[in-house]
Amino acid sequence: MKPKAKERMPTRIQKKNRAAILEAALNVFSAHGFRGATVDQIAAEAGLSKPNLLYYFPSKEAIHAALLSGLLDTWLDPLRALDENGDPLEEILAYVRRKLQMSKELPRESRLFANELVQGAPRIHDTLSSDLKALVDEKAALLERWMDQGRIARVHPYHLIFSIWSLTQHYADFDVQVRAVLGDEDPFEGAGPFIDTVYRKLLAP
C-alpha cells in the first residue's frame, strides 16, 4: 500500500486570493443575498477572473458555505462567554454589549446571516437545529438557575435571548433605516446606554 501523499500547504498567493474571494463574497452576499449574488460579481469584486475564482471554490454555494461556517462560530462566541460564575446581571449586560459591538464592527456578516434566515436557512438549518439550539438550551437553563436563586427577575429565558438578538442586530440589519431617521447622529452612541437601561430595569431582582 502506497503511503498517502502529503497535502501541499497553500502558498502565500493562494492564501491571499482565497481571503480576497471571501472578503468580496461577503460584500456581494450581504448586499444581494444568496439568490441575487453571482460568481461573476464576486470575481469582479475580488479582482480575479472567474476561472481563477473557480480554482479556489467550485461554486457559489461553496463560497457561501465557507462564509457561513466561519460566521456561525463568531456569532455564537459571545453567548458561549456567558459565565455561570459571574454576576448574573453584569454577565447578561456584557453579552448585550458584545452583541451590539458586533453589529457595529461586523454589519456585513450580520446581514449575510439575516439574509440566510429570511430565505428559510436552507444552507444552515441543520446547524441551527443542533449546535445553536444546544448552546441556547444550555444558556437558557443557566438563566433559569439565576432566576430560581432570585439573582435576576423572572422572565422567559428564551425570549430574553431572542430580544437581545433583535435589539442589537437591528442596528446592522436595518442600518439604512436607522441612519435615515437619526441623520448625522451615530446610532451606536445612543443605542448602548438605552439598551443597557432596558435590561437593567427588566432584570433587576
- What is the CATH-assigned architecture of the largest domain? Orthogonal Bundle
User: Residue-averaged pLDDT, rounded?
Assistant: 92
Annotation, overall tally of beta strands: 0
| Category from helices, strands and their pairing | mainly alpha
Largest sheet: none
Low-confidence stretches: none
What is the CA-based Rg, rounded? 20 Å
| Strand content range | under 5%
Shape: globular
Order of helices and strands: HHHHHHHHHH
Q: How would you describe the oligomerization state of the chains in this entry?
A: single chain
In percent, how helical is the residue content? Answer: over 70%
> Any idea what the CATH superfamily of the largest domain is called?
Tetracycline Repressor, domain 2
Describe this structure in words.
One of its GO terms (molecular function) is DNA-binding transcription factor activity. Pfam families: TetR_C_3 (PF08362), TetR_N (PF00440). This is TetR family transcriptional regulator. The chain is an all-alpha fold and 205 residues long. The chain folds into 2 domains: 51 residues, Homeodomain-like (Arc Repressor Mutant, subunit A); 136 residues, Orthogonal Bundle (Tetracycline Repressor, domain 2). It has 10 helices and no strands. The radius of gyration is 20 Å and the shape is globular. The mean pLDDT is 92.
Which properties best describe this structure?
Tetracycline Repressor, domain 2, 10 helices, DNA-binding transcription factor activity, Tscrpt_reg_YcdC_C, 2 domains, mainly alpha, transcription cis-regulatory region binding, globular, Arc Repressor Mutant, subunit A, HTH_TetR, 205 residues
